[in-house]
Amino acid sequence: QIQAVIFDLDGVITDTAEYHYLAWKQLADDLGIPMDRSFNEQLKGVGRKESLDKILEHGGKHLTEEEKEFYATKKNEHYKTFIQDITPDDLLPGILDFMKEIKEAGIQTALASASKNAKPVIKRLEVEQYLDTVVDAAQVTNGKPDPEIFIKGADQLSVDPAYCVGVEDAQAGVQAIKAAGMYAVGIGAEEALSQADWVVQQPSQLSLEELKRRLEM
Ligand code: B16
Ligand code: MG
Predict the structure, then answer these.
(1) What's the gap in Å between 146 CA and the centre of ligand 1?
(2) Residue 86, Ramachandran bin (φ over 0: left; ψ between -120 and 50: alpha; else beta)
(3) pLDDT tens-digit map of 82-92
(4) 171 CA distance to ligand 2 centroid (A)?
(5) pTM
(6) Which bound ligand lies closest to the C-alpha atom of 44?
(7) Is 2 helix (H, G, I), strand (E, B) or coil?
(8) Which keywords appear in this protein's UniProt record, sorted alphabetically (predicted)?
(9) Ion ligand 2: residues, CB < 5 A
């Protein structure tokens, strides 16, 4: 019995990963650190500070806490410029239909995003009305793969995690969903998301009927 579906944002509802990539790339260029799309895969679902640490490690560069603070803020300024251009056209194909299907079935929904920019993004995508609650990075102490963000989402909906389904595109996110005791739907490559209970390649392959069928198995 599904009582709630908890969605990740980046890679599930929209592809902000591209904007995060462009923003980090700009910063990495400033720092003289080589960065490409394949390296960027490691940053998906990972918080801002942790992402910067990974980039610095990749470039073999050491910075003071103050400098890190400066560069993390700078990356966010780049990112905020990019997300101003987001429109409902940036929704990933099929995700809106799935969200509508869930709401129509009387199932609750939450957003669990590691991004501190999640709220302006869902506003620009015009999907706020399909989300009953939002938990973003500003409200949690421990980032994914810690289950805190998903547990908090369930709490805010007053639903037992055992009756929740989490939807994620990142490995760390799937780990967080499983650690929260929820059913995990992974979006992306099967190999990378092997811990998920059900993996689809794209959000357009999601359907409530299929989800229910799988939960009954
Ligand atoms: P911000 P998600 C994550 O969003 C992104 O996947 C990740 O690349 C980003 O670094 C992180 O949010 C923090 O974002 O700098 O905006 O706070 O996938 O959890 O929705
Ligand atoms: Mg994600």
Answers:
(1) 15
(2) beta
(3) 999 999 999 99
(4) 9
(5) 0.91
(6) 1
(7) coil
(8) Carbohydrate metabolism, Cytoplasm, Isomerase, Magnesium, Metal-binding, Phosphoprotein
(9) 8, 10-11, 45, 169-170
Residues 40 and 24 sit within 8 Å (Cβ to Cβ)? yes
Tell me if 115 is assigned to a ligand binding site: yes
Residue 111 structure tokens:
């957003």
| ipTM for the complex shown | 0.90
Per-residue pLDDT reduced to its tens digit, 187-211: 999 988 999 999 999 999 999 999 9
Specify whether the CB–CB gap between 10 and 171 falls below 8 A. Answer: no
Pairing mode of beta strands 183-187, 198-200: parallel
* Encoded tokens for 115: 């991004």
Q: Where are the alpha helices (DSSP H) in the chain?
A: 17-31, 37-40, 48-59, 65-83, 95-104, 118-125, 148-156, 171-179, 208-216
Tokens of 157: 């909906």
Percent of the chain at pLDDT > 70 equals 100
